[in-house]
Amino acid sequence: MLDWKNRTSAPGEPAKGEPAASHSSKPARGYLTGLLMSRAVLSVVGLYLFVTLVVGWYWSREPALFPVQQNAQAAAEHDHRQMVVGYTTIETLKTVAGTLINKPGGYISNDRFPPGLWLDNMPSWEYGVLVQVRDMSRALRKDFTRSQSQSAEDRDLALAEPLFNFDNKSWALPSSESQYQDGINLLSNYQARLSDPAQKNALFYARADNLNNWLGDVATRLGSLSQRLSASVGRVKLNTALKTEALVPGQAPQVDEEIVETPWMQIDNVFYEARGQAWALSHLLRAVEVDFADVLAKKNATVSVRQIIRELEASQDPVWSPMILNGSGFGVLANHSLVMANYISRANAAVLDLRQLLNQG
After folding, report:
1. Is-contact 272 128, C-beta < 8 A?
2. How far is residue 352's CA from residue 100's CA, in Å, rounded to a whole number?
3. Cα radius of gyration (the chain)
């Protein structure tokens, strides 16, 4: 029988001498579990952010300059091909275009996930390189490989040019990388036919007029870059859209002024686009110096080409600042855009001098 006399606790409560059950142990245990889970999630997120920052820094490093002539000779020996006029230019264009998709991190401009999604300097550099690749592929199609305006264009180059002009931000179906790789493959097909003595339908005409046409595009690109870089500090520019029908005889025309200034968030993008164009153009000019050596020597223009290359390669010096500075022209802080504009302007002036030499009879 139960000892009701000795049991003083209420029904449902533990008797005297029995350990009391802890009702607060479950909430406390749940709180500790949640705290540990939160710390684990924060640790994983922090580690992920740290890794993406390190990877993003590595991916943002610009590729170094490569020796153009040695690169072409090594490629010819590897593929057992004959070095002919035009081979160095094609091989250099292939290498420059291949750098976009084979450098550390691959092609970043169309990335949809971190860290490529967060980067903007390297995509700007890639776009600058792509501009020069597109210009050279167009020059190959319409000038360098045609004897005259009525001659037929090369079939591989006709297919390669639109591939390089494909959308540079397409992620899939198809991706930008796949289109550019197809363009490189077509350049390889043309190069193989060009170096094969048995093939008579692959031609390369190293003439002064052909080179001058491409240099016209180069001068246009460099002139635009110089203006955009100089606009980093904002300056007053005269409006060139003057209506001549409004002029009054005997009076000076009224010219409007406008302030041109690059938006603050776009300054580094313009800077790295200029770096990309200068990087690609320096290699292409070194290739042109090889394939157009006879023409340049006859026009006494070899020194002019080397002067352009020197200015462009000087613009590739390392940037030691962690960010692109935008100080005033004679202020305390540096202005990296103005320094780059100086190199680009000097290269553009040398291109104009080179075109004059090529136009001389």
Report:
1. yes
2. 29
3. 32
Give mean pLDDT, residues 305-318. 95
Give me the domain span that covers residue 187: 62-239+257-359
Pairing of strands 257-260, 235-238: antiparallel
Whether 52 contacts 115, CB under 8 Å:
yes
The one-letter amino acid code at 121 reads N
Q: How many domains are there within the chain?
A: 1
Letter for the amino acid at 9? S
Cα gap 114→49, rounded to integer Å = 9
| 325 within a domain of the structure (yes/no) | yes
Secondary structure, 3-state, 50-67? HHHHHHHHHHCCCCCCCC
Angstrom distance (rounded) from CA 175 to CA 72: 28
Query: Is residue 4, in this structure, part of any structural domain at all?
Result: no
Q: CA 46 to CA 340: how far, in whole Å?
A: 37
| Residue 95 scores a pLDDT above 90 | yes
Which pLDDT value is given to residue 13? 54
226 inside domain: yes
Q: How far apart are CA 259 and CA 238, in angstroms?
A: 9
Asked if the peptide bond before residue 174 counts as cis, ω within 30 degrees of 0, the response is yes
Q: Quick one: average pLDDT of 307-323?
A: 93
Residue at 1 is within a domain: no
Phi then psi dihedrals of residue 5, to 5 deg: -70, -40
The one-character DSSP state at 246 is G
Which residues pair with residue 235 across a beta bridge?
Answer: 260
Q: Determine the Cα–Cα distance for residues 46 and 48; give it in Å rounded to an integer.
A: 5
Q: For residue 172, give the DSSP letter.
A: S
Q: H or E element: which one contains 237?
A: strand 235-238
Answer whether 120's CB lies under 8 Å from 268's CB: yes
- How far does CA 328 lie from the centroid of its chain? 26
Output the pTM of the full model: 0.84
Residue 342 and residue 50: Cα distance in Å, rounded? 37
Reduced to 3 states (helix: H, G, I; strand: E, B; else coil), residue 154 is coil
